[in-house]
Amino acid sequence: MNRKWIVAIATMFSFSALVAGLSIAMADDEGPVHDVMEKINSKSNAIKKAIRAEPGYKKAKKELPTLVKDLVQLSKDTKELAKDAVKKAKNVKDAEQQWADLSDALTKELEKFDAKVNDSKSEYKDIKSAYGPVSQSCTKCHDVFRVEENGF
Ligand code: HEC
């Protein structure tokens, strides 16, 4: 075989290895963190939907305590996944500590939200505005731990 062919075949081979490597990196949508995030997202969306507007809130009100309770539990489950999260966060400093702090922060905001939801003196607007800090604690963790490819 002449040299040109060897170079061409070698180039093709390394190119397909690169493509395979890239698709593995990009298809990174499984694992325990991903699974818990899917659940967190669906609960969070249900809560946001319930508090979006006052008429809807009046109807959905009685479901809120359970949704919040479930989300608090999922937030605690998230904290337990530090080992898995850290594996994917090679560039994050003190990753394990940050993971613990950021998931605790979410739990804390959720517990405040829970207190508002269960306080009979709360009005619709109090409950709606109490969810803001919860969403912010989602973003704070994503800023640190979520890799670009996820597209969020
Ligand atoms: C302690 C850190 C942390 C907190 C807090 C957090 N997330 Fe995430 N989230 C992640 C990480 C890491 C990923 C990427 C997971 C993966 O794909 O491996 C992610 C991914 C997601 C995804 C994309 C699904 C996926 O796995 O690709 C959604 C949607 C999401 N989070 C929603 C939320 C919402 C809503 C909240 C708040 C109620 C929240 N997250 C709080 C760390 C966090």
TrEMBL record:
The keyword Nuclease does not apply. GO terms for biological process: electron transport chain. InterPro entries: Cyt_c/b562 (IPR010980), Cyt_c_II (IPR002321). It comes from the Bacteria. Residues 1-19 form the signal peptide. Keywords: Signal. GO terms for molecular function: electron transfer activity; heme binding; iron ion binding. The keyword ATP-binding does not apply. This is Cytochrome C. It comes from Singulisphaera acidiphila (strain ATCC BAA-1392 / DSM 18658 / VKM B-2454 / MOB10).
